[in-house]
Protein 1
Amino acid sequence: MNKSVDLSTLADWDQTHVWHAFTQMAEYEPLLIERGEGATLIDVEGTRYLDGSASMWCNVHGHHHPRLDRAVREQLEKVAHSTNLGLSNPVTVQLAKRLTEVAPAGLEKVFFSDDGATAIEVALKMAFQFWRQTTPAQPSRERYLSIGEAYHGDTLGTIGVGGVARFGSIFGPLTFEAIRIPSPAVCRQPPGTTPDEACRASLSGLANILEQHHHEIAAVVMEPIVQAAGGILVHPPGFLRGMRELTQAHDVLLILDEVAMGFGRTGTLFACEQEDVSPDFLCLAKGLTGGYMPMAATLTTQRVWDAFLGTHAERRTFFHGHTYGGNPLAAAVALESLAVFEDERVLEAMQPSLARLSERMAEFVDHPHVTDVRGRGMMAAIELVESREGPVRYDPAEARGMRACLAARKHGVLLRPLGDVVVIMPPLCTTPAEIDQLCDAALAGIDEVCGR
């Protein structure tokens, strides 16, 4: 930071010139983060906060991790960036190879881009083009099927397959409309519905749609196991496996969005491992680089790859790309992050913290203003209501979730809500003691804003 600029000036510039994402700028109050250590962020005045949202769900091993820092520095001694359009570099090639080794079987081809939305956009366009170039061609397959309350990004294509109205409805005239099925999450079913009943009903509805419309559908797009930005909506066991079986039966491509779930977030490296599912496209971002650099990857199969091969004159090329796709700095830190997973046995080491998070979440179940507590792995959600009877939901204009998260800051914790759902999703390195601090702060914030 330029020490010649005082903190009040920086705050003024932040409020005047920086347009923050998903933020009502008329109500924004600056908070300038300067440093990070492990699961902690430190602002310009030295105040410490536990990073309860993993810096928008992307930080994996903690801030200022020595091995990740070193990977970036060592790559800087070579080259910071060279284009991936018709060229390559050693570290990006190594990362692509490593991703094919850790990903589900059959995903052998890797297309690099910049962030989660672009990873999904790549898969949507590849699927669309695939059906025009495969043998025999099936150009009627130009629609997508997705899940209600799903979020896949903010580009026009990803808005088309998204289902969170508050994020994308205003842009409806600019994009397409996917076929949608309701979320199978039990918390979105009638009271008393069991997970098995929710799974069967959802798969039955899906089967009917595919039976009638499979010839129109290029791909199904879904987040496996958990719908993250839709409110941490946990799918019933067997739904993902059933989805894969139905798409295979009707030869519909399956795009799995593991942007939020990938890299240990649900307790396994990829969420789809939990039901032994291998998709046609696997979309990765956020935790890919451990939260260090913007990078995304869309993995796909030999079958899809083959449909794009031919001479230049045949114009079968995938005419899509990103300036920083395959960036060497990002590739270097992503490769090292995967090594850290293996060397530090991250998935095993995080088990005590997962157990502690589950224990602490149980304490919210009986709160008079909590209608549901849910989660998977290192992601948990507390859904707020005015009254559990009904339930009666708060007026969205009251922004109870956001206010509860702001109140939690007084207790040294940074959280972000999803509407009136308070989300706890810290780095995987967070200790059981830090889990306690996160949960204590969340409870204090909810009590301050909602009362008992």
Protein 2
Amino acid sequence: MNIAKHMEAIFLAVVAVIGATTFATAGDAPQRSAPEVAAVAAAGGAAMPVVVVSARRLSAAEKAQLPQ
């Protein structure tokens, strides 16, 4: 059997198996309502870290001086 000749059929079969697996396992994941998610987020107590980067832009002359 020439695999290259049947590559499209192999691809479609793999996609079908992955799709069936996705639908079969979709009910296994625990579902949370919006108030539960908010309560879990608030229970953490730690604020989300924020990084602020401030710098001035280089002029064309300064860019030209940088090593390549």
Protein 3
Amino acid sequence: MFIEYIAFLSVNGVDVMDKYNEFRLKYPDFYYHGFTIQDNKDHIFITYDFEIKGLMRFNPTLKVPKKQGLKYDKSLLNKIIFSSGLAEIPSYWKATCSPNIIIEGEYLDEYQINWLKKLIYNGLGEFFYVNKIEVNESNFVNIKSNGENKKIEDNNEYDGYLVAVGGGKDSLTSLEILKDIPNKKAFIINNRKVCFDGANVAGIKNEDIINVERLFDKKIIDLNNQGFLNGHTPISSCIAFISYLSAYLNGIKYVVLSNESSANESSVMGTNINHQYSKSLEFENDFRSYTSKYLTNKIEYFSLLRPLSELQIMKIFSKYPKYFNHFISCNNGGKTKNIGKTDGWCNSCAKCLFIYILMNNFVSEEELVSIFKENLLDKKQMLNYFLELLGKTTNKPFECVGTIDEVTYVVNNLIKKGGNLPYLLKYYKDNYTLVEPDDKILTKIDTNNNVNEKLLDLIIKELN
């Protein structure tokens, strides 16, 4: 992924910082005009309306299933839908980084404006860094709003768990931890087959799966092809609001994500730039604060796996081989095969290598090769990703990967076991000082989390 982003440093031979300044001058205003809703029997269909004034209008859509017969407050529904639209802004705004964002139809107070500024600034941290765009957090954008800010009371009652399933090991681990918890549903976006398969293996029936269809406006790709700015956006912030909206429309109390403590580590050494910002505890706490203050405090969003590291999650996941052929953590494999509706491992990205390394600590090489079809630790072309994962470069891979300490632990542990070492492990042994693996990394619980005591007991029981 890093190689892909490097291309953005020069657009048609012009320095990206110059393009950034040019676009801001030429297109100073970005509008969030609002949205329309079609309220149907079993779902609502939402169309958002964004505009870079003088350039292009964008209309991404959402189709969200709802529980038939459930009564809900339309004013609160509108507020949740509006707030979800705020998280969609960075995906379109980044094309020109317009200095003004104008929000129509809803008033934002100072707290909300600062909340949105923080999301854009931190959520686009990687985008700014990779494109070498220098921005000032205090004045990189001016957010204005017009409209009313009505106070809403929520008289609804909620129950049950909505578990977001993304196709990887993490959400399947959450489903396994919650296997004896009744009244739970799975939340999936865009019909990914691997998500349905994993949820079904975990015992979730199709009628208990809430599948949301989210379509971004492909006109943004046209702009990218014309040389407008592009890069990583905080997609997990969109997922946070969409899952919250789905919980509201289906009367569900707990929205359960599967983001781990490892997501808090920055991607660029010595900075706060984090590819996983919208998966971090910082974002989670900000989101919980926003929703309880401006939407409803009766729906609770949290990450079940926050007490755990990626390595600990893999320790639990590896106990359940029933999932080995029903998970995919590679972003490229899904893209190359029918837009993610069927999936595979690309075996050439940092994410594939990371999963392979961690899994190797708990699963035999024979089992691993049956999943990945080759030994990724024996691929010379993976060396740069390998060094990035180990913190031997200025940045980690711009992927959702674990901490440097976790990878270092596993690599040293694998070398310690001896035998005929594959290329990458031999390279490490020949060029770096080996350290004695400390097994405490497998048992230490991160206490900075929003998990209640009942669920925390289930996590610890599963881990040990």
